[in-house]
Amino acid sequence: MRYSETHKTQTHEQLVQIAGRALREKGPDGVSVADVMQAAGLTHGGFYAHFKSKDALMIEALKAIFVRAREKVRLVTEGLPPRHALAAYIDFYVAERHRDFPANGCALTALNSDMPRQSKEFRKVFNTGVQSLVDVLAYWIAASGMKNPQSPEKLASSILSAMMGAVALSRAVTDRQLSDELLESARTSIKARIGVDDASLSREAVQ
């Protein structure tokens, strides 16, 4: 049976989405082409009609994840002034929901420890995703006019590292209460460090 181009496109997109979830949940080395095809209800042999290799699938899946991540940033912060956007995104990122659903979360936190073993092209895509998020954070920092001895880019890199580390550590520990406390303390300290905690934003509102 011959399928239309529309059907092929829809199948291709489905495979990319399935691979994207598996990628964040299992890491690149844990993703199997056979499992991706089975999840889509397809045979293993049909894979090469869509991708040249597993690495090609992983690269496309990671690119798609970053596209959706940018949309999430927009939805979480749309209409907010820079300082409030920073606070809202930190709350969104350093959160129990993000910890509990890695398959739908940030690929940076999910995949950072896997990167040294991956292909050069895959790592390039990952690097682009890191830089994209640093740029967004740096933009909010610069636009907020906050005073800091570090440049907006360096401060943004530091904030992102702290956010990623907090989520990764909260996933690693088995004690649920400790995990919750790690996230709460990280949110509080990161926001206080850059002056976007609730108290600072409240004072700004009445000035």
Structure, explained:
By secondary structure, this protein is mostly helical. It contains 10 helices and no strands. It has helices spanning 5-26, 33-39, 54-77, 82-93, 96-100, 107-111, 120-144, 152-172, 176-193, 198-206. α1 (5-26) crosses α3. The longest helix has 25 residues, at 120-144. It is elongated, with a radius of gyration of 19 Å. The mean pLDDT is 92.
Short description:
With 207 residues, this protein is mainly α.
Measured distance between first and last alpha carbons = 69 Å
The helix/strand class is mainly alpha
Order of helices and strands: HHHHHHHHHH
Look at the structure and give the mean pLDDT.
92
Portion of residues in helices?
Answer: over 70%
Low-confidence stretches: none
Q: β content, as a range?
A: under 5%
List the topology elements.
Blueprint: H1 5-26, H2 33-39, H3 54-77, H4 82-93, H5 96-100, H6 107-111, H7 120-144, H8 152-172, H9 176-193, H10 198-206
Helix pairs in contact: 1-3, 3-7, 4-7, 7-8, 8-9
Question: Keywords for this structure?
Answer:
207 residues, elongated, mainly alpha
